[in-house]
Amino acid sequence: MMSSRTFSLLAPVTLGIIILGIWEGICRFWHIPPYLMPSPSAIWRALMLDGVALLHALLITLEITFAALIAAVVGGVLVAFLLVQSPLIERCLMPYVVIMQVTPIVAIAPLIIILIHNTPLALTACAALVAIFPVISNTLQGLRSVDPDLAAYFQMHKASRLQTLSRLRIPSALPMFMAGLRIATGLSLVGAIVAEFVAGTGGNSAGLAYQILQSGFQMDIPRMFAALFLITVAGLVLYAAAASLQRFALRHRS
Amino acid sequence: MSSPVLSLAGIEKVFPNGVRGLSPVDLTVEKGDFVTLIGPSGCGKSTLLKLIANLHTPSGGKMSWWGGNFGDVGRKGRRMAFVFQDATLMPWATIAKNVRLPLDLEKVDRATADKRALAALERVGLGHVTEHYPAQLSGGMKMRVSIARALVTEPDLLLMDEPFGALDEFTRNRLDEEMARLCYEDGLTTLFVTHALHEAAFLSSRVMVMAARPGRIHAQYEIDRSILRNEEFRLSDQFAGISRELAILLEDASRESMIQQEMRA
Q1: How many contacts does A have with B, using Cβ atoms within 8 A?
Q2: Contact by Cβ (8 Å): A137, A98
Q3: What is the longest distance spanned by two Cα atoms in chain A?
């Protein structure tokens, strides 16, 4: 008998291989030209051929992703702490947080890119803006999700504001914060790619989005797929890393 | 003569929505008492306990702890501990850290706190799980940890709000026996809220039977404190007699609570 863990890994991988096989078969059997739909083998060849350039681009995109994630986490946590201080502050600020969230980043990105001359910085700002909302809302909700009896216990034992914050509020907020962090990790990558698309920056500091744009102009569709493949892998790795960080931080709680 | 541990004179509570939770209550708890508050739901027994813990403020009346006001509670000889209906542990902290919490809040040094936490856990028979986390423990064990967290401060008054309500009968009886030992052998003054009649009959030196709408003390019932409260007592005719008399008082209180409600309707 197979363990359920092995099975849950093996099943989707098998399905993936079957689909790739059918894809390859269709492309070869009907001689579909690669500029319409490249076969998996053609994509793989493009990846091997241009791997170094694409990986370099991926690294640039990841740099922006991480910088944006750090900015979103630091900024988001600070905003959440500010909002939780008083109902007045929250009532004043919350609508703007929501406005920021509902405005599509594609619409604000050109403005940010004009305002901030340093391109990597502008891209980071765009991506951070996308990622910050789940951090704010989850941390805020987490800071409020304190067990009322435990809060009463702290009050009864005359705990100071600082003790209540460090020993009760912050640990109570951790599960919600970690869930927010996981969402923010994915969104940072999305934000970085979208910002790169809008900025359309070429040259040495071009990220993966630019590689996709350029491949599109040159009708080099296999290369486009290769870049897309790298983005997907990067997204998966980031998601898995955030999920394991979450599991690690909350390992004792369930 | 020294002041009573707790003295309530005409304490009442009207909630902000105008509901009268507690009509004037008088209650005195002396050192070594095991006082149980029992009554139908809505009789204000938990409210009364929270007033005493200073988690609510009374709407009227006078209340004193060891003859003084709440500001002096927490000093040596005037320590109060509270045990909730749920264990109310910090899921992110080990059992040792959970028990150490009240000492940490008082900034007791680490080594002393650890030693006292271990001693408190050993008193409730859990000296072997200090490095476990709450999620790894059963409901009964978690409740024991919660009691250890109360004992670690060496309280002079222990307040318990339906602490074993969520546990199975067997576990509950074991914990009741442990509580009886703490109170009658170690002299821990306890104020206990429950809705379980057999628990009140087993543990108390005095039972306050409460009625609802508005919450008030309906009757008082004294039980001989020299009785050895063990498994044998639970099976005795004496226990059955106490339970029966309490049942009658409780039935009375419930009926009166209903009449009050009908009169209003």
Answers
A1: 47
A2: no
A3: 78
The tokens for A224 are 């486009």
Angle of the B139-151 helix axis to the B169-184 helix axis, nearest 10: 20
Per residue in A120-173, pLDDT (tens digit) is 999 999 999 999 999 999 999 999 999 999 999 998 888 999 999 999 999 999
What single-letter amino acid sits at B242?
A: I
**How confident is chain B (265 residues) per 10-residue block, as mean pLDDT?**
86 88 91 93 88 90 91 84 93 96 94 95 91 94 94 93 87 90 90 92 95 89 92 94 94 84 67
Q: Is B210 helix (H, G, I), strand (E, B) or coil?
A: strand
What CA–CA distance (Å, rounded) separates A47 from A230?
A: 9
Three-class DSSP category at A30 = coil
Q: Which residues in B lie closer than 8 A to residue A163 (C-beta atoms)?
A: 105
Contact present, B148 and B124 (Cβ < 8 Å): yes
Query: Where in chain B are the domains?
Result: 86-154
Residue whose tokens read 């993936």: A16
Provide the β-strand partners of residue B36.
B192, B207
Q: Name the residue in chain A with its Cα closest to that of B135.
A: A254
Question: Which residues 169-198 of A are in CB contact (within 8 Å) with B?
Answer: 171, 174
What are the structure tokens assigned to A216, written together? Answer: 């599109």
CATH tag for A37-249 (out of 1.10.3720.10, 3.40.30.10, 1.10.238.10, 3.40.50.2300):
1.10.3720.10
Length of chain B: 265
State whether A149 and B86 contact (CB < 8 Å).
Answer: yes
DSSP A46-62: HHHHHHHHHHHHHHHHH
B55, A252: Cβ pair inside 8 Å?
no
Distance from CA of A215 to the nearest CA of B (A): 50
Residue B212's pLDDT is what? 85
ipTM of the complex in this document: 0.85
Tokens of B87: 């264990």
Q: pLDDT below 50 — which residues of chain A?
A: none
> What b/e string do you get for B226-236 counting C-beta neighbours within 10 Å, with b at 16 or more?
ebebeeebbee
Cβ separation B53–A174 shorter than 8 A = no
Q: Using omega within 30 degrees of 0 as the cis cutoff, is the peptide bond preceding A171 cis? A: no
Among residues B207, B192, B135, B139, the alpha carbon closest in space to that of B161 is found at B192
